[in-house]
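User: Thanks for the earlier help. One more: WSCD1 protein. Can you show the sequence and predicted structure together?

Assistant: Of course, both are below.
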Amino acid sequence: MAKAFFRLQKFLRRTQFLLFFLTAAYLMAGSLLLLQRTRLVIQQGSRGTSANQALPVPDGMAGAGIADPRTLQNPRPGPRLLVGTGARQEPALDQHHSPRWLASRNSELRQLRRRWFHRFISDQEPMQTAGSKAMKHTAEHKGTYMGCFSDDSRERTLKGAVFYDLRKMTVSHCQEACAERAYTYAGLAYGAECYCGNKLPATASKPEECNSECKGEKGSACGGVNRLSVYRVEELRAGARRRRNVIYRGCFRAPENLTDTFPASLIQPNLTVEMCSEFCSKKEFPLAVIRGRECYCGYPTGRFSLRDGADGLLCSGTHNTSGAVEGKYCLVYQTPVQDTRCTDRKFLTTKSKVFVALSSFPGAGNTWARHLIEHATGYYTGSYYFDGALYNKGFKGEKDHWRSRRTICVKTHESGKTEIEMFDSAILLIRNPYKSLMAEFNRKYAGHLGYATDRTWKSKEWPDFVTSYASWWASHVLDWLKYGKRLLVVHYEDLKQSLIPKLKEMVEFLNMTVTEDRLLCVENNRDGNFKRSGAKQKDFEPFTQEMKDLINRYILTVDEALRGRNFTGLPREYVPR
């Protein structure tokens, strides 16, 4: 009996060891598999294949409206697209034969979600810490290094202009940008931020405290945390003067008391536009106002809003005589100086109770609307995706998790019931589909500021793009009208034409209040950093008659849907061509 018990005990010990070994092997194999799958996901991130925006409607769903594109990732044979009440149907593209751009665009919408992606694209370059050897300051830089200074974000000395490049900032880039705008000093902070001004900061800091390496220039100091590396660039201003852009704003009726309206003034015989602009630039004012021999500097204000221009003939003698139309009119110029009354931005100090979307079809002006909202409210906007180009130019909310509720609203191009119902309310931005399609096609093939080549426009990519993306333009609006809980519909064209009234409406929808001067500052900085020059494609017409017929039916469908929900219909310029 004892012998049998001993054998049983020996067997159990061996079994226990065997189970332990098998468990360890299982865990190791699982870990290796997980690591390999993670690597595969990262490698496939740039070529994802989700299909998301097609707008087919199966034959059996006629009369039910445009279908949710997410329910059609595996379309049945013979899908149809229902348009308008006339029940005219167009065949949609079979997703198994979609052009490669369609898979690419859909993958962009998915892979740019930052639930994990932003961790892999974060800048990993190590920063030098305090106590390490000092970085170079003057080896390859044209300006004169003035030292390391303390930087108070609440009351900056260098506040004449602000630039961000969170990936490629260099000392030379900051110096040249400040010199072109007629500033004397250029200061860099956090390795990526550039500030310009005409006054040297008052509080000096230890040289080793400016220990942030420039994002685009290894070994060069670009300030630090609340520290500025300051350079004098006055010697560069002569070479940069020819590149400065002084813009004629028009002829305006002069306010009753110019000295009360404008903080700085100069009386100079034989006054020229350049003399007045230089004077106002040194004073860090964005407007130069000329009336005869008198030069005034200031900002757009309630007293002088620049909204109601006068006939240019009324200012025809203003520049040479002091009595043009009895001195009632003046010439106004935009100096190279940036209006900084609305450039300060931050994250919400407490989480927002209302989760607001800024929704639009791609190419409808979402980035521009975010620029306006951020500068009007002083708070960052977030994004459902991550766009490095936007983040690098100062849209810091790009890198914040889209559900953090630390941003005033969240950009999205998504549609479908699930994605829409995540938000409590939304600003729905709609743009003419003809313009939206061209803008998105340019962005896809040439970036935020470029233009697609003539060869690309003439390739098969363009007609395929129009066929599928036009339906997405319609489905995006219709889905938000159907599933959105609380909507403010804003037409891009109305916002462009009546900026202040429409922006006020958007800000009120966000439950924010702003001053008139801040709105005027936004108007003065209305373009932002991502506006394409319209000269290249002003008279370009890439749409065939077949394309126009397709798009026009979508326009009529969306217009009818808007009116059916008691919203204003589409602007007149959307009327079918």
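User: Great, one quick takeaway?

Assistant: Residues 196 and 520 are 21 Å apart (CA to CA).
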